[in-house]
Amino acid sequence: MDRRARFFRFLAKHVVNPVMRRAVPMGFAPNSVALVETTGRGSGRPRQTPVLNGLDGDVFWVFAEHGREADYVKNLLADPRVRVWADGAWRPGGASVLPEVNLGRRREIERRHGLMGWLDGLMFRAAATDPLAIRIDLDH
């Protein structure tokens, strides 16, 4: 992993994500941020990861910057049952990794969130080492 990728990974893991994990459920984060909760593959404990709010009806789209190397992706591969916090509520669902990344869909989601989506997209493109698309089908 190159220095740029290590820097963005450190920034996300130790600065941005801890703040957003607390801010999102309290209503202090922009609506462009959501949480995906996986079950830790080793600990069995809930793990929450801030992501771009990819809610589209009963489907939630996630685009992992570091693909299968991201801890939350490893967790959902081990147990695809997840929860998503978006638009003020937790919703359970089942996650599946898609064989191809549709970055056009990601850009659609970014546009939906205006300036915050644009900023997220800028960070995503700067940090992404191995983009991966995940579809979460939410329970009714």
Describe this structure in words.
- There is one protein chain.
- This protein has 140 residues and is of the alpha+beta class.
- It has helices at 3-26, 71-78, 103-112, 114-127, and strands at 33-39, 46-52, 55-56, 59-64, 81-86, 89-97, 132-138.
- The chain has one domain: Electron Transport, Fmn-binding Protein, Chain A (Pnp Oxidase, Chain A).
- Helix content is 40%, strand content 31%.
- The longest helix has 24 residues, at 3-26.
Mind sketching the topology for me?
Layout: H1 3-26, E1 33-39, E2 46-52, E3 55-56, E4 59-64, H2 71-78, E5 81-86, E6 89-97, H3 103-112, H4 114-127, E7 132-138
Antiparallel strand pairs: 1-2, 1-5, 3-4, 4-7, 5-6, 6-7
Helix pairs in contact: 3-4
Shape: globular
Give the number of DSSP strands.
7
* CATH class (first level) name: Mainly Beta
**Largest sheet data:** 7 strands, antiparallel
Count, helices: 4
The N- to C-terminal Cα distance equals 40 Å
The CATH superfamily is identified as Electron Transport, Fmn-binding Protein, Chain A
Strand arrangement in the largest pleated sheet: 2-1-5-6-7-4-3
Count of distinct structural domains: 1
Radius of gyration: 14 Å
Order of helices and strands: HEEEEHEEHHE
Task: Tell me what portion of residues adopts beta-strand conformation.
Answer: 25-35%
CATH architecture: Roll
Mean pLDDT equals 91
Helix-and-strand structural type: alpha+beta
CATH third-level topology: Pnp Oxidase, Chain A
* Percentage of residues assigned to helices: 40-55%
Unreliable residue runs: none
